[in-house]
Amino acid sequence: MNEQWSSKLGFILASAGAAIGLGALWRFPYLTGMNGGGAFFLLFIFFTLLIGMPLLISEFIIGRGSKREAVSAYAKLSATGAWKWIGRFGVLGCFLLLTFYAVIGGWILTYTMLSLTGSILQPGRSYEALFGSIVGNPLISIIGLIVFVALNVAVLSFGIKNGIERVNKYLMPLLFIFLLIIIIRSLTLDGAMEGIRFFLSPDFYSITTAGTLEALGQSFFSLAVGFSCMVTYSSYLGNNQSLPRSAGSIVFLNLFVSLLAGLAVFPAVFAFNLEPDSGPNLLFVVLPSVFEQLPLGGVFLSLFLLLFFFATITSSFSLLEIMISAFTQNKKYKRNHVAMISGLLVIVAAIPAALSNNLLRDVLLFDRTVFDLTDFLVSNIMLPLGCLFIALFVGFKVKKGLLLEQYRMESGRLGETANLWYLLMQTIVPTVILIVFIFGLI
């Protein structure tokens, strides 16, 4: 018998923690800023409900329906073993994603520690130069990476209930509390309404084809679908929980946090006449400039960075867990040993990405640093392919009866939407994903 979540809330908080990470709190604000604001937000909501949620339900069904981790789940539900490569593809994707995700986690951890000691906000400081000095220092980058991965290993060594679930029960409520504090302060700034209008008033003339594709890609990224992380999480789930209701709760929380992230960032950015389209530098360069001009700015910056750190590490749990579970499913290896070995492998593989802004900055592959190339490979190629494989597996390979049984279990009247979900997985979802993949490559 596999270890299981101790409660429905524990599963939802852990799954929400997996989804609400850099995608919702960092990637979403800067993509929204770069793609015109409100129109991008509406497209993101649309794609999350139409494409992301059906995929999330699918991963839940595969996991609970098989009671297996990602690799063996696909083999169990299909007549041929070749489909297990979807799970292996997911493990590889999570591993590669961790090699640059953990580097960013290390940067955030470094910024958080500096902020708590009052070492960031200084009058006249160039925050772009500060960021450059941190990521440009190989020792700082590697130490941050090691500490971030070590924290993951420490939590995951305790298992599902005593590790992931227990930590998420504390960190997820704190994340919401800190985010609400930042929003209240941001909305009380002079000129905050300009930021609200930018974020919530759609201007569809500002949306490009690239922006539309970014919105769809963000719906995958923000729900942690495509690499079978949720297959692994749901394999620990009992039969007393409605999968579509659980997916709906996670989607709602994700969209709600994305809304809160926009309300925290854009009013402050516009209040101080800064550019909303600053891209990935929004967290490390633009926001310190904002907090520098606020009373108690150091306190609010520390809260904001702690918020980002909590979101980042709860998401990374799911990425490392899919690797650990692949080797602990049959009880052949001890969890803590597998966790330590997996963490060590991630650290070694992530070192080139950690050095991409310093010692290896001139080492380019396809005109990209190792960090940027890994990001592109994972986000633009492997993630949409993973979503496409899962859609095809669910839509055309698994027995329809098993899928609908899992969908309807404990779902009441909501179970009546099972056929609609199945139709989406056979038609709209794979078609849209294929279009995104092709245009993404172009």
TrEMBL record:
Tree of life domain: Bacteria
SUPFAM superfamilies membership: SNF-like (SSF161070)
InterPro entries in alphabetical order: Na/ntran_symport (IPR000175), SNS_sf (IPR037272), YocR/YhdH-like (IPR047218)
PROSITE patterns documented for this protein: NA_NEUROTRAN_SYMP_1, NA_NEUROTRAN_SYMP_3
CDD domains, per the entry: SLC6sbd_Tyt1-Like
Coiled-coil boundaries: none
Keywords attached to this entry: Membrane, Symport, Transmembrane, Transmembrane helix, Transport
Membrane-crossing residue ranges in chain numbering: 9-28, 40-62, 85-109, 129-158, 170-188, 220-238, 250-274, 294-317, 338-356, 376-398, 419-441
Family per record: Belongs to the sodium:neurotransmitter symporter (SNF) (TC 2.A.22) family.
Official protein name in the record: Transporter
Organism of origin: Alkalicoccobacillus plakortidis
Source species taxonomy: Bacteria, Bacillati, Bacillota, Bacilli, Bacillales
